[in-house]
Amino acid sequence: MAQVCRLRFSSIALFRRNAAAHIIGSVEISLEGKVALVTGAGPNIGSGIALALARYGARVACNDVDDAAVKACIARIERNGGEAMAAVGDVTDEKAVQGYIDSVLAKWGRLDILVNNAALLGGRGVLDETAEAFERAVRVSALGTFLNTKHAGRAMASRGIKGSIVCVSSSNGWNGSAGVCAYAFHKGGINNFVRAAAMDLAPYGIRVNSYTPTAPHPDNPELLAEYARQGRTPFGLRPGSSGGLGAPEGTEEWRRPARFDGPRNPMVPMGTTGTPTDIGHAVAWLCSDYARLITGTDLVVDGGARAKNFAYVPAAPDDLAGPLPLIPLDDTPMPPTPET
Ligand SMILES: NC(=O)c1ccc[n+]([C@@H]2O[C@H](COP(=O)([O-])OP(=O)(O)OC[C@H]3O[C@@H](n4cnc5c(N)ncnc54)[C@H](O)[C@@H]3O)[C@@H](O)[C@H]2O)c1
């Protein structure tokens, strides 16, 4: 069984919660005793966050509309030594939300952490998006985040639990990209929902924050193996696709390209946007007791991408020192990497 992940920092003294022991010389970041609910626990970011919370010691309820995604997330947590349960349901269905939160409370008696991660990615630009797709994308993100925050908030407040609610934003919630008008709309909405909900829940000691990833590189071994089986790159791209937002639409003679399609300069100052494991470490810390006064704000996990001035082109990849090595959280062996 894998060990619960603990990060230690030297030369700091503190009193341990629930124990009279006075620890001299180190601080442990631990979520032991806490119960978490992660929505949209699909194999990429949701599963990465759920695994991280489990590795830091929380028991984790995994939500998704897709039963198979929930089962895979639970299996991943369990084979890495954690404890998990299913919370299957559509985040936009209030009865379903109440039902899976009640089942978490019935099994584990409490709820300390909610991660609002479920969303529909992709989409189209304003000239081409359909009313149906726009409405559904906004509904999943906006209504799903509201309903889960409402019922998790009530579960926490009514039990005197000073919990932590984290909503997933995106670089598209802060800056513009072509081809994602619904996504940009609802991620921008998440950013100010966080500030409003933080005010509603502050009297109860409950914190509400967002984190902002930017196209992390998938690192779930099962997802990478699936991409390899499908002949995709480790980033999930089909052969020949250069990826990126703002793909061309339509053949009318008045159409103009939405993006530069030539060779691109490096855009991320540290050379990488990281992985779901990087996000998981950050979210686990944000849900720990050390973040007790952090509310109504955003934590960016993107190698400096959002901080960058538009006119600044970072150094070439070969000239960068690169970040510290990643501290892995999944003991599953990695599949062989296909040629990209
Ligand atoms: N992947 C990226 O590049 C990226 C970048 C920035 C932000 N994000 C954000 O991170 C989060 C996760 O992204 P991902 O790449 O893992 O996406 P994903 O599509 O792999 O996972 C999203 C999951 O949400 C689930 N879901 C969709 N509708 C639902 C509903 N109504 N109820 C319950 N579950 C539902 C899906 O089944 C899926 O498993 C999203 O909020 C996304 O916007 C992703």
Explain what you see.
- The protein has 340 residues and is of the alpha/beta class.
- It has a single domain, classed as NAD(P)-binding Rossmann-like Domain (Rossmann fold), CATH 3.40.50.
- The protein is 32% helix and 13% strand.
- It is built from 7 helices and 11 strands.
- The strands form 3 sheets. It has a 7-stranded parallel sheet with strand order 7-6-5-8-9-10-11, sandwiched between helices.
- Strand 6, helix 2 and strand 7 form a beta-alpha-beta unit.
- Helix 1 (45-55) packs across helix 7 (276-286).
- It is globular, with a radius of gyration of 20 Å.
- The two termini are 34 Å apart.
- Nicotinamide-adenine-dinucleotide is lined by residues 39-40, 42, 44-46, 63-66, 69, 90-92, 117-121, 140, 144, 168, 170, 213-215.
Secondary structure layout:
Layout lengths: L6 E4 L3 E2 L6 E2 L2 E4 L5 E4 L6 H11 L3 E4 L4 H13 L4 E3 L7 H15 L4 E4 L14 H28 L5 E5 L12 H21 L5 E7 L7 H9 L46 H11 L11 E4 L39
Parallel strand pairs: 5-6, 5-8, 6-7, 8-9, 9-10, 10-11
Antiparallel strand pairs: 1-4, 2-3
Helix pairs in contact: 1-7, 3-4, 4-5
CATH superfamily: NAD(P)-binding Rossmann-like Domain
Shape: globular
Count of separate DSSP helical elements:
7
Oligomer state equals single chain
Per CATH, the class reads Alpha Beta
Low-confidence region ranges: 7-23
Q: What is the residue-averaged pLDDT?
A: 91
Specify the helix fraction band: 25-40%
CATH architecture: 3-Layer(aba) Sandwich
* Percent of sequence in beta strands: 5-15%
What's the number of domains? 1
Q: Profile the largest sheet.
A: 7 strands, parallel
Going across the biggest sheet, name each strand in turn: 7-6-5-8-9-10-11
DSSP strand count: 11
Main structural class = alpha/beta
CATH-defined fold name: Rossmann fold
State the separation between the terminal residues, measured CA to CA.
Answer: 34 Å
Q: Identify every distinct bound molecule in the structure, by name, code or SMILES.
A: nicotinamide-adenine-dinucleotide
- Following the backbone from N to C, one meets helices and strands in this order, namely EEEEEHEHEHEHEHEHHE
